[in-house]
Specification:
Number of strands: 3
Largest sheet: 3 strands, parallel
Helix content: 25-40%
Mean pLDDT: 94
């Protein structure tokens, strides 16, 4: 692995969809949540631990760590894609739902790319 040519890309590991109280899931009870996507909720903690274990290695080698999040560029979501509008969700700019999970949060100088489609 060439550190100068390597990057770790963390995709959509954010409160909206990866936290039980995220907007995608907060309407469900804990029992409904576990029943609706049982594999996801078993696998997610391990995936987050794996990402967390990679971060120090990439950072120590000064390789890029980049994040993407589902997050509108506006509070009202007017910039969302048609797909997101039809799907009925908006993750407002700067909201808790738009933030990367605390366990794998970006450092102050890492790149976070919000995407609206």
């Amino acid at each position: 692995l060439d550190p100068a040519a390597a990057a770790l890309v963390v995709i959509d590991v954010q409160n909206f969809c990866c936290h039980p109280r995220g907007a995608q899931h907060r309407h469900l009870s804990q029992d409904e949540l576990r029943a609706s996507e049982p594999h996801f909720w078993v696998a997610m903690p391990e995936a987050v631990r794996n990402i967390a274990s990679l971060l120090p290695a990439f950072r120590s080698l000064r390789s890029e760590v980049l994040y993407t999040t589902i997050e509108s560029l506006t509070a009202d979501g007017r910039d969302r894609s048609l797909d997101y509008k039809i799907s009925g969700f908006n993750v407002p700019r700067g909201s808790w739902d738009g933030r990367v999970l605390d366990e794998v949060a970006p450092s102050p100088d890492e790149i976070v790319l919000p995407k609206t489609s």
